[in-house]
Amino acid sequence: MNRKRLSIKNLTITLPQGADRKYAVNDVSLDLYANEILCIVGESGSGKSLLSNAIMGLLPDGVTASQGEIDFNGDNLLTYNEEQMRKIRGAHIGMVFQDPMTALNPLKTIGKQISEMFTIHTKLSKQEINQKVISLLTDVQMPNPLSVAKAYPHQLSGGQRQRAMIAMALALEPAILIADEPTTALDVTTQACILALIRELQSRKGTAVLFITHDFGVVADIATRIAVMQQGKLVEQGFANEVLNAPTHPYTQALIAAVPPLTPGDVRRINKEIILEVNNLSKTYHNHSFFKQNRRTTYAVDNVSFKLHRGSTLGIVGESGSGKSTLARCIIKLLEIDNGQINFENVDIANLKGKKLKHYSRHIQMVFQDPYASLNPRRKVGDQVTIGPILHGITKQQAIEKAKALFNMVGLDSEALNRYPHEFSGGQRQRIGLARALALEPKILIADEPVSALDVSVQAQVLELLTQLRKQLGLTVLFITHDLRVAAQICDHIIVMKSGKIVEQGIASQVFLNPTAPYTKDLLDAVPGKGWNPHRLIDMSPAIHI
Amino acid sequence: MAILKDYFRSPIARVGTILLLLIIFIALTADWFFPGNPLRLAGRPLQWPFVNPKFILGTDQAGRNIAAQLFHGAKVSLIIGLVSTLIAIIIGVVIGAISGFYSGWIDDILMRLTEAFQILPNFLLLLVGVAVFGSTINIVIIAIGVVSWPPVARLTRAEFLSLRNREFVQAGKTIGMSSTRLMFKEILPNALPPVIMYASVILSTAILMESALAFLNLSDPNISSWGNLVGNGRLVLRQQWYVSAIPGIAILLTVLSASLVGQGINDALNPRLKKR
Predict the structure, then answer these.
(1) Where are the alpha helices (DSSP H) in A140-264?
(2) Where does this protein chiefly localize (chain A) (predicted)?
(3) pLDDT band at residue B202 using 50, 70 and 90 as cut-offs
(4) Which of B170, B177, B189 has the CB atom closest to A391's CB atom?
(5) Which numeric CATH code is attached to B67-275?
(6) Taking the model in full, what pTM does it have?
(7) ipTM of the complex
(8) Mode of pairing for the β-strands spanning A313-317 and A493-498
(9) Which residue range is the domain that position A381 belongs to?
(10) Which of A124, A162, B54, B179 is buried most deeply by CB count within 10 Å?
């Protein structure tokens, strides 16, 4: 066994009074050894981030580490004052944050920010520092390190910014690197590169890495050991192989069971009838500028055509900026299109307006991504669900009856109609959003990343609900997602988009098992944990046959 | 209710509310304590306060009871403040909402109009209004309201710009809500808190503006406002300073209470302060 680098003993972190629970972290003991990656896994609110903040001495006001110790080099870090902590941070323990855009200073060049690490902690000359900066940027495989050193954060891509953050964290060769969800804000292909980089640097330098994440796919890719947290308690820890393939604690089992496998379900027989046909749809954005040379036209959706069969589920997958959300908003007429046709039941709705549009638009409804932004915080959820049908001409009493039935259908208590959105959890809100969309009895449901803001166990429940409703109501679903695992679970057909264009489309099993476009192959290769397919402990979504 | 609790947690808000309630009490009891016209001649002119028990706050140079003018003036000042604030808020919110919701050329036109109002000093515009339409109290109130709306419009527009692309608004659009409904029933309640807070600023400037008008003898001379009293006292400021000072303090306290209440509302609605 390697040397012990950090040892957390019986750590308890107390939350201020009035919080939803008393302890953020409850009696947690952990050891971190040199040359390993220890993944702390948990859902939101499990206390995993506060644990890492406690190590760095960065607990927010009112939150205190009330018991236990954090041993580092024979000293208890909890007894250090701010002055002593400052010498530890950066030099001995480096940290990489989730969002590289907010963690970097926008007014200083990357090179300058990295060299600060040396000017603060060492007495190197300016020239030596500059050399070190360049070699660090080369180390993190930054393309063209000389020019990147002179660049400002906004001039780099998300992945490059995260590389710069890692370079900064590793500048003084700390014994420990804490990475708090370092790839959550990145696209899958970028995420795969960053994970490979962290693994490579870690094994070359023998650093002890504490990696915090909620994503079991990432864990499977990177972890040496795993610690699972639930509600502030450490419920299971062990070597990656054991925890991933033979979890003992029921919570770990449930979490792993909720990870959708990458293999598509059985092929369903699909109706031949076409409910929606999109032909040559284009949507461009113009950058109005006084000077001609600065004017730019961005093709958000570029000449897209596809057919949607009645009762089927079509998945649109792609990375951020691929135009998948814009496409959905064009179809639901939130955005005006530049070109093309949207034929819904053989009527072109692309250029309809006013009353005529209202007549058709009720048949296409949408569930939004962010369960916190998609409900009006100042109206009772009941009002928000009933208003749609009332606007389309049924009485208030009927609408309330309908809303009650819908709430039961999506698994909520009908008493909840009289409550405000903030009284619900993320998953419950997404159910309300679903009820609101279904209240108009749509024929097509567009779901724009409906589960990407949810914890993995809640995600599984909402997906299950969606598949069940699809069967019950005969819905046609247009499912937009960046998560190929989710797409594999519920889609019959897949469209892969990149930079506004469709690069591949076909039956799900074909796209997943025999992708033809190189980009699709890249995407599939980048899915975290693709080599790890847990055997199903619970069969989450049985394939549904008509 | 949680907001009320947050509101009263701050000592600033408590002091402001008590002061404001006191002023409202004075305004409401004016007719009960001092029945009749407060501008009638009541006794010997220029009696100092606390000398004659009949005139606790003394008399001005025309022999009118200062206490009576103060009580009745509270009513006038509050009405001026509230009504002109209401006018400013309604004009500002409607223009700001339309401007922020539709954007494009409608926004351009409305914002140029707003800027046209903003580049002229408020008070100058108010003087022009009063000079053209006369200086009865109704005109003064409307004129103050009409010169005070541009900041409200800009504030509302900014809120609308950030709210109109929220998913709940898009959701409203897809279930077939009309633009008016989206604007006033969905977005407006979410945009209102900063506007309500700003209302306290307008309320205090409105009272100050009326006082300034009265000081220049341009307000309605037939009503007993604090501004008129200060303006009259100006003539005897060196010897009988109390004639101007007493209503001056009343104006100060009213403006102070309004801004304290505004500050309290701001703190209560600001989630970042709540955490402390």
Answers:
(1) 145-149, 158-170, 188-205, 216-222, 240-245, 250-257
(2) membrane
(3) very high
(4) B177
(5) 1.10.3720.10
(6) 0.81
(7) 0.77
(8) parallel
(9) 274-526
(10) A162
